[in-house]
Write a structure and sequence with these properties.
415 residues, Growth Hormone, Chain: A, 78% helix
C-alpha cells in the first residue's frame, strides 16, 4: 500500500483532507449562483417582454449542459487531474456569465449564459466531488455532501445580492458582476485540489467486504444493474421536483402566495439553507441507513410537500409556501449527496468519474422536464399551482421505485 504524503497543508492527511472539502464548498458557492435564477426571471421577462416559459429557457439550457457535460468530464479527471479541470472550468463559467450580460434577447442569453456557463459548471462540479470521494472512503456520504453544500447555500448570498444589484444596475449588468466573482473563487480554490496517492486509506479504517474485494464496475457493467436504473429514476424524480421548485420559487411566492418581490427574494436565500444542509444530512443518512431507506424518506417528503403546496395554493398562506418550498429544496440538496455516495458505494471509485457522470444525466433530464412542466402549465392555465399535483404523483412513484430497485451494492452481481 502506498505511503501517504507526510503532511497536507501542514497537517496529517486525516486532518488535512478536510481542507479539500472546504475548498470544494467555496467552489460550489461560486457555481451554485445558478440557483438564484428565479430572482432574475421576472426582471428578464419585463426587460425582454417574454413569458414564463421563455424566461426559464436559459435556466433549462444551463442545467442540461451542466448535466450532460458531466459524463464527458468524468472520464478526463484521471488524465488531467482536478486542478487543471477546475481552472479551465472556472474560466468557462465566467465567460458564460459575461456573455450573458451582453445578450440582446432571451435566445442569446440561453446560448451564451446557458450553453457556455452550463458547460463550465459541468467541468468544475465534478472536481471537488471526486476529490472528496477519494479522500474519504470512510465517510464518503458526509464528505461529498459537505463539499457540495456550497452549491445549495449559494442563493443565500447571491439571491439578495443579485436582487439589490438588479434594482440598481439591471439584470444583465448584474450577471457580469457575478461572473467576475465566480472566476476568482473557482480558480483560487481549484489550484490546490489533488487526489490521494494510489492505495491510500485513513489510519485505522477497515474497508467493507465489497470494497476490500477490490471490485470496481465500469460504466458498461454499471448500466446492466437494476440498482443503476433505480438510482437514475429516483434521482430524476427528485431533481425534477427540486429544480422546478428552484426555477419558480420567487414567482410562486409573488403570484400564488401574494408576497412582495423583496420578501420572495429573501426567502429564496432561506430555502438555499435547506438545500445546502440537505446535502450533508442525507449524505450522512446514506452512510448510516443505506440507499433504499434514505431515498424512500426523501421522495416521500417531496410527495407530502407538493401535496401541501397544491392544497394551500391561492389561500394567501405564506407558512404553507415556506414549509413546502423549504422541503422541496431540502430534498433536492439531499439527492446531490445521495446520488454520488450511492454511485461510489455500488460501483467502487476506480471508474467513479465516468460512472457518476452517467448517473448525473438524470439531473439534466429532470431539469428540462421539471421546468418545462412548470412553465408550460403556468402559460396554459395561468397559475403555477397546477404543477404540484403531478409532482406529488411522480414522487409517490419514486417511492415505489426506490423500494423495488435500490438495495445492497451491486458489486457481488458483477459478471
Amino acid at each position: 500500500m502506498a505511503a501517504p504524503p507526510p503532511t497536507l497543508f501542514g497537517m496529517a492527511p486525516e486532518r488535512g483532507r478536510w481542507v479539500y472539502v472546504a475548498l470544494g464548498l467555496v467552489m460550489n458557492l461560486a457555481i451554485g449562483s445558478i440557483y438564484a435564477w428565479s430572482v432574475f426571471r421576472k426582471p428578464l421577462e419585463a426587460f425582454f417582454s417574454v413569458g414564463a416559459t421563455e424566461s426559464l429557457l436559459p435556466f433549462i439550457v444551463f442545467l442540461a449542459l451542466f448535466a450532460f457535460t458531466m459524463p464527458v468530464v468524468g472520464g478526463l479527471l484521471d488524465r488531467y487531474g482536478p486542478r487543471l479541470l477546475s481552472v479551465a472550468g472556472g474560466l468557462i463559467v465566467g465567460a458564460g456569465w459575461l456573455l450573458g450580460s451582453q445578450s440582446t434577447s432571451m435566445t442569446m442569453l440561453a446560448l451564451g449564459y446557458g450553453l457556455v456557463g452550463g458547460i463550465g459548471v459541468g467541468i468544475v462540479y465534478n472536481c471537488p466531488i471526486a476529490v472528496a470521494a477519494r479522500w474519504f472512503p470512510d465517510r464518503r456520504g458526509f464528505a461529498v455532501g459537505a463539499a457540495v453544500l456550497g452549491f445549495g447555500l449559494s442563493p443565500l448570498l447571491t439571491a439578495p445580492l443579485a436582487n439589490a444589484l438588479i434594482a440598481s444596475v439591471g439584470p444583465l449588468a448584474t450577471m457580469a458582476y457575478v461572473g467576475v466573482v465566480a472566476v476568482v473563487a473557482i480558480v483560487v480554490c481549484g489550484l490546490p485540489l489533488r487526489f490521494p496517492p494510489a492505495g491510500w486509506a485513513p489510519a485505522g479504517w477497515a474497508p467493507s467486504a465489497a470494497a476490500a474485494a477490490g471490485v470496481d464496475l465500469t460504466r458498461s457493467e454499471m448500466v446492466r444493474t437494476r440498482q443503476f436504473w433505480g438510482l437514475w429514476l429516483c434521482f430524476f424524480i427528485g431533481t425534477l421536483a427540486g429544480l422546478m421548485a428552484i426555477g419558480i420559487a420567487a414567482p410562486v411566492g409573488q403570484e400564488v402566495f401574494l408576497l412582495a418581490p423583496a420578501t420572495a427574494a429573501a426567502l429564496v436565500g432561506v430555502f438555499a439553507v435547506f438545500n445546502g444542509v440537505g446535502r450533508p444530512i442525507f449524505g450522512a443518512l446514506v452512510d448510516r441507513l443505506g440507499t433504499r431507506t434514505t431515498a424512500v424518506a426523501n421522495l416521500g417528503l417531496i410527495a407530502l410537500a407538493a401535496l401541501l403546496l397544491w392544497a394551500g395554493s391561492g389561500t394567501s398562506a405564506p407558512a404553507v409556501y415556506v414549509v413546502g418550498f423549504a422541503a422541496l429544496w431540502l430534498c433536492l440538496g439531499g439527492w446531490l449527496a445521495i446520488a454520488p455516495a450511492c454511485t461510489a458505494a455500488y460501483c467502487g471509485t476506480k471508474h467513479y468519474g465516468p460512472n457518476y457522470g452517467l448517473v448525473f444525466t438524470a439531473y439534466g433530464v429532470g431539469a428540462i422536464a421539471g421546468n418545462l412542466l412548470a412553465g408550460s402549465l403556468r402559460d396554459l392555465v395561468g397559475s403555477y399551482a397546477a404543477v404540484f399535483l403531478p409532482v406529488a404523483a411522480l414522487a409517490a412513484a419514486g417511492v415505489a421505485a426506490a423500494y423495488l430497485f435500490l438495495g445492497p451494492p451491486v458489486l457481488a452481481e458483477r459478471g
